[in-house]
Amino acid sequence: QVQLVESGGGLVQAGGSLRLSCAASARTFSSYTMGWFRQAPGKEREFVAAMPWTGSTTYYGNSVKDRFTISRDNAKNTVYLQMSSLKPEDTAVYYCAAPNPYYSGTYTRLSKGETYRYWGQGTQVTVSS
Length: 129
What we know:
By secondary structure, this protein is mostly beta strands.
C-alpha cells in the first residue's frame, strides 16, 4: 500500500508561481511512476503531468505545457510540480497519483486516471485574477 500526501497549495495571483509536493510512503519510491491530475468544480479530472519511474522522460497536458514542470527526488520519496505563469483557469484541486510499481506506460496510458492505483487527498490551488 502506498500513501500519498500533497502539500503546497494555496492562493496566488495570476502570473505567479507555486510548487506542489507529494510525499510517498513507499519504501521503493524510485520504482513508481508518478502523475499529477487536477479537478476544478463542475469539470472532469484533467491530466497535468507524469514522470515514469525510469526518469527518462516527462509528459504534460496541453494546457500546462511550457508552464509546469514535474520532478522527483527519490532520496526524499517526493515528487514535485513547479507551476509558473499561473492563470485563473489553473484553479483546481491537484492530486498526485501512482500506478503499480515498475509501470512506465506511454502518454496515452499515463494521461488517464484509470491507469493509477494510488491517489492522494489533493491540495487546493486558487489563482486570482
